[in-house]
Design goal:
Number of domains: 2
Number of strands: 13
CATH architecture of the largest domain: 3-Layer(aba) Sandwich
Organism: Draconibacterium sediminis
Strand content: 15-25%
Shape: globular
CATH superfamily of the largest domain: Glycogen Phosphorylase B
Order of helices and strands: EHEEHHHHEHEHEHEEHEHEHEHEHEHH
Largest sheet: 7 strands, parallel
Distance between the termini: 16 Å
CATH topology of the largest domain: Rossmann fold
Keywords: Transferase
Radius of gyration: 22 Å
Helix content: 25-40%
Protein name: Glycosyl transferase family 1
GO molecular function, one term: glycosyltransferase activity
Structural class: alpha/beta
Amino acid sequence: MKKVLIITYYWPPSAGGGVMRWLKMSKYLPEHGWQPIIYTPENPDSSVDDESLLHEIHQDSIIIKHPIWEPYDVYRRFSGKKKGTKFKAGYVSEASTGNWKSKLSVFIRGNFLIPDPRKFWIKPSIRFLSKYLKENDIDAIVSTGPPHSMHLIALRLKKRFPDIKWVADFRDPWTNIDFYFKLRLTNWADKKHKKLEKKVLKKADYVVTVTPRWQEELAIIGNRKVDLVYNGFDHIDFENLNPDVDTKFSMSHFGSFNKDRNPEALWIALNEMLIEIPEIKEYLSIQLIGQTDDSIIHSIKKAGLDKFLTNIDFIPHNKGVALLKKSQVLLLPINNAPNALGIIPGKMYEYIALNRPILAIGPTESDSAQIISETNSGICKNFEDVEGIKSTLQLYFNHFKKGTLKTNSKSYEKYSRKNQTTNFVKLLNK
């Protein structure tokens, strides 16, 4: 069996979207004759943990852990946060509009911690992995970012071991990521980020990303071919789910719900529906499962919807999927950010496979909207389209009352983790 070294910051028991791509793909690599060797921090500063994910690690996987030092404890002391406080996803967006300490911390993060706060793991990892590569036969290296420090580790290893194939996997962009413009960058820092990004794009044997729009953007930045391997859903996550749905008109969101995703138009539309269709008060239920930014709770209260809200801060992934299966409508707000056209939330593929109607809120010409349309799995409305969102909810509510609210998703099997792993392996085998 060939061996692939996967350099990733995110790994179970850490949870969230950054974990799932390589947890799932590494599970299917052995079917194609590739043994995954995971290199990951021994003590990562994760935003949320999910011990249940440890059971999904393939038995053939080799896990190598090495200590990491991160500056988050310094930031906690500086900002007055308690030791051990978890940073929610999207903390850069939140801090960029906070008090002077928060703004200063964002400035330091963008201008001195290049490419990201995990930069202090680069040199120790190069030393550790150089020794490992000399003592073990490795056929390929995959670096996955963000954090993009993982790519810089692989970049140095490629220089020392030029015969080992290197695939740089961009789960999110680097200089086009949604919060990049909030980092308060000096011209020097902006040039430094872009120089490192181009160096990775130039030196990697293959570059991969997860959406068509980002594929085009990275190809332009790097002046090279970029391959597309989508995220996806894992069939195993949907086995033996209870087919019964809620008796309430439940609308659910699963995963991190940060400030940039706050769908203000949705809360306004629901508020108006309470007045226009009083009957909906008997049935409405809003379920937010996962870390939710305070600004979203505030918007819900402002719209008079808090009595319908259930907010669950954490639930294991498998139980979260079961709750989604019961839901009448699945909410998919897209980050309201400059790169919104290329954002495809990883949860979208699970939503599609669950075969419950999706209400997406974001650009109607985005990559997400295109897949939702292609798979016949829901409706997408623009960020500010209160009337469009309201008409969609009215349509869904009418079907709910008749007992006919459902979707017939189609053509979505290609988005399974198993099929997407097959696509990735084609690059490893070249």
